[in-house]
């Protein structure tokens, strides 16, 4: 797979086929996660791979987190149910967890590395013909999810990456980058 082409052609995939994903493929994908620019080589990450019957638990937690956030709003239950179903349709969810440095500058730089690490995972999945979808939302700050993941007080989840075989690959648009580049010579 040509890297430049993959960088442009990769899309966030929302819908997956029911086909499972081998643990071995997930291991291969996660193998590239640490190989990103990382100031002080702080390695702020850890990952939880959620699959099998644990997906149902995570999907239920997502339902509750969305419901709690939208309590009293019209359509809250339907929205929460959709959120649950989304997680039930993915064969794997990878949770990326950042260890929070007490120093705010380091914490911000670590977040940059976390995001790159997630992107490595997403690109590695793409190279295996798998799609990913990066979810945040109410799950990220849910106490119940934190407890279920066994988070320590200095950890926070930054991404819930749904991974699976794409049912369809959406089309996206970007503005021409030349409009946003200012050369100084
Ligand atoms: C930090 C971050 C958080 C995101 N959280 C959500 C989310 O909670 N819900 C959602 O629908 N998409 C979320 N996305 C995915 C973006 O919506 C998606 O990448 C965007 O639509 C661009 O599509 P593309 O990746 O196919 O170019 C998130 C992406 C990032 C980088």
Automatic annotation (TrEMBL):
<keyword id="KW-0560">Oxidoreductase</keyword>
<dbReference type="InterPro" id="IPR029479">
    <property type="entry name" value="Nitroreductase"/>
</dbReference>
<protein>
    <recommendedName>
        <fullName>Putative NAD(P)H nitroreductase</fullName>
        <ecNumber>1.-.-.-</ecNumber>
    </recommendedName>
</protein>
<keyword id="KW-0521">NADP</keyword>
<feature type="binding site">
    <location>
        <position position="39"/>
    </location>
    <ligand>
        <name>FMN</name>
    </ligand>
</feature>
<keyword id="KW-0520">NAD</keyword>
<feature type="binding site" description="in other chain">
    <location>
        <begin position="134"/>
        <end position="136"/>
    </location>
    <ligand>
        <name>FMN</name>
    </ligand>
</feature>
<dbReference type="GO" id="GO:0016491">
    <property type="term" value="F:oxidoreductase activity"/>
</dbReference>
<dbReference type="InterPro" id="IPR052530">
    <property type="entry name" value="NAD(P)H_nitroreductase"/>
</dbReference>
<dbReference type="Pfam" id="PF00881">
    <property type="entry name" value="Nitroreductase"/>
</dbReference>
<keyword id="KW-0285">Flavoprotein</keyword>
<comment type="similarity">
    <text>Belongs to the nitroreductase family.</text>
</comment>
<dbReference type="InterPro" id="IPR026021">
    <property type="entry name" value="YdjA-like"/>
</dbReference>
<keyword id="KW-0288">FMN</keyword>
<feature type="domain" description="Nitroreductase">
    <location>
        <begin position="7"/>
        <end position="165"/>
    </location>
</feature>
<dbReference type="InterPro" id="IPR000415">
    <property type="entry name" value="Nitroreductase-like"/>
</dbReference>
<feature type="binding site" description="in other chain">
    <location>
        <begin position="10"/>
        <end position="12"/>
    </location>
    <ligand>
        <name>FMN</name>
    </ligand>
</feature>
């Amino acid at each position: 797979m040509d890297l430049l082409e993959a960088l442009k052609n990769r899309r966030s995939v929302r819908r997956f086929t029911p086909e499972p994903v081998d643990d071995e493929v997930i291991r291969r994908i996660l193998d590239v996660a640490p190989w990103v620019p990382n100031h002080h080589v702080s390695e702020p990450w850890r990952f939880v791979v959620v699959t099998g019957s644990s997906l149902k638990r995570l999907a239920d937690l997502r339902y509750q987190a969305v419901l709690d956030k939208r309590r009293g709003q019209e359509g809250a239950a339907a929205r929460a149910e959709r959120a649950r179903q989304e997680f039930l349709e993915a064969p794997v969810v990878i949770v990326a967890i950042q260890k929070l440095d007490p120093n705010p500058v380091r914490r911000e730089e670590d977040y940059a590395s976390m995001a790159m690490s997630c992107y490595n995972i997403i690109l590695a999945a793409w190279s295996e013909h798998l799609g990913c979808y990066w979810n945040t939302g109410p799950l990220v700050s849910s106490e119940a999810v934190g407890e279920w993941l066994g988070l320590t007080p200095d950890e926070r989840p930054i991404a819930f990456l749904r991974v699976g075989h794409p049912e369809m690959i959406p089309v996206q648009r970007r503005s021409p980058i030349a409009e946003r580049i200012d050369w100084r010579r």
